[in-house]
Design goal:
Length: about 350
């Protein structure tokens, strides 16, 4: 149990089990923020065109590795396969066996950014789900219905009834991650299922409720999908993340979009939280009196669920002011990071071995 007033926290290097690293120039600009903190990351496949084949995922992984600074060479991108109505069980299995695909991502068609090629009806991918269940391949689920008749704030809860429950009724053993949960209903659903069902929780859904989007005017940098919900849901997420339950783990859903694409008449969904992700989680865990549970949430529950080894390296977080810039450069554009203009009270200092060497 770490001393609550301790000035340093040393934990296993964390992993990010849900991130959007984008491609080309934007990839080059953002990948270092993730690679600086995390040992591995589950990289979302919603590029345009999406990553649907083993060859595309291997090529994308090469581009990510090529974009890494030499200091981050040990960072391991874990690739995902974007499921479509046409996904082929044999291709999915081949990618998993060849260790190119770590998981498959289910986007309901039109649920979010670049999801137009997503699955129109889960009945179309029964063969893939059957195969994934058999080989123990994780299914990562964007859990929102797209029915325009359903209120935006209810789409996650309705997805549980209409879709997720049915997937698990038909494939009770499939390893499934309810990605970026935002509601008390999703937390209860995950808690009520066996060890094969888990969830990721983002830094921003732990810190903001839906009021943040409307404070004194429209605040596009707090708009993401699934959209932030009422305060009672935020509190349920904080309880789940800090409970010590092995079913909940770190997934930032960092989703960078340029200022121009956010501050627009029809702005993009996504919060860019990668630059200060672990600092943000540390602030939340400290406020909840649960700093001693940060390591399990950030560095143990994820790899244990995926069946991967824990990172052996330790990293240091130091207590002290950490100022978040208003904007960060990304190629020829700028992006507003989560916590812009705020001061956080933990700073990520990198590898414990390296930090020790500094007097
Ligand atoms: C993500 C993006 O921009 O790619 N946006 C978001 O609001 N989270 C897509 C997603 O994960 O839904
Ligand atoms: Zn996402």
């Amino acid at each position: 149990m770490p001393d609550p007033s301790a000035s340093r926290l040393i934990i296993r290097r964390p992993d990010d089990w849900h991130v959007h690293l984008r491609d080309h120039e934007l990839l080059q600009s953002v990948v270092g923020y993730t690679a600086r903190q995390f040992g591995r990351a589950i990289v979302m496949p919603n590029l345009s065109p999406p990553v649907t084949t083993v060859a595309q995922a291997a090529a994308y992984r090469d581009r990510i590795r090529a974009a890494l600074h030499p200091a981050h060479a040990s960072f391991e991108p874990l690739m995902t396969c974007y499921l479509t109505d046409e996904s082929d069980p044999a291709e999915v299995e081949r990618g998993f066996e060849d260790r190119v695909f770590a998981a498959c991502k289910l986007y309901p068609a039109h649920a979010t950014t670049n999801s137009e090629h997503g699955v129109t009806d889960v009945s179309r991918i029964r063969g893939v789900l059957e195969r994934m269940q058999r080989i123990g391949m994780p299914l990562l689920v964007h859990g929102e219905v797209t029915d325009p008749a359903v209120d935006v704030f209810d789409r996650e809860a309705v997805f549980i009834e209409r879709v997720f429950s049915k997937i698990l009724a038909d494939f009770p053993e499939v390893k499934a991650v309810f990605e970026h949960v935002t509601t008390a209903e999703a937390v209860s659903f995950v808690e009520s299922r066996g060890a094969n069902v888990a969830a990721t929780i983002t830094p921003h859904h732990l810190r903001i409720n839906r009021n943040a989007m409307f404070e004194g005017g429209i605040r596009p940098h707090f708009y993401c999908l699934p959209v932030a919900k009422r305060e009672r849901h935020r509190l349920a997420l904080r309880r789940a993340a800090t409970s010590g339950s092995t079913k909940f783990f770190l997934g930032t859903d960092s989703a960078p979009h340029s200022i121009g694409k956010k501050e627009a008449a029809c702005g993009c969904a996504g919060v860019f939280n990668a630059p200060f992700a672990i600092e943000s989680y540390a602030a939340t865990f400290e406020e909840e009196g649960a700093l001693d549970r940060l390591e399990a949430f950030a560095s143990e529950h994820g790899p244990n669920f995926y069946g991967l080894p824990l990172n052996e390296e330790r990293v240091v977080l130091e207590r002290g002011p950490c100022r978040v810039p208003e904007r960060l450069e990304a190629g020829r554009e700028e992006i507003v990071p989560f916590h812009a203009g705020e001061e956080l009270n933990w700073r990520f200092k990198g590898s414990a071995a390296a930090a020790q060497a500094v007097p």
